[in-house]
Amino acid sequence: MAKNTICLWFDKDAEEAARFYAKTFPDSAIGAIVRAPGDYPDGKQGEVLVVEFTVAGVACVGLNGGPMFKHNESFSFQISTEDQAETDRYWDAIVGNGGQESECGWCKDKWGLSWQITPRVLMDAMKAGGGEAKRAFDAMMKMKKIDVAAIEAARRG
User: Would the pTM of this model clear 0.85, i.e. be above it?
Assistant: First the structure.
């Protein structure tokens, strides 16, 4: 286990989520699956309690803690993409697997975790500053999934 690990709270589907992430994103994998050694408030002995996994190289633990805590937008994974095809692939995987679209490149997976599918061209425009950043930002504000060609056109003015 990594020294610093993100712990994500799930109801009873941490393993399902981890398997989806491992299948969807490169440099992702399932690690140890730990079963509860005894009954606990929202589960029984032998049920999956903890799943260790990585998402795009980031160490995570999925904890099946029960229904009391829900994911919200205060935490999100930000996935940088190189082009429209990669942006579409991740967006479509998340939204097409029971997730939902949001605004400005954000979407939620079916477990309620937020994802920012962010083409590098958008971040490059924002770092450039000035009119280029403003035009790219204004274009992004009208989008759900980021349209790389529209951001590139906005950068050029």
Answer: yes
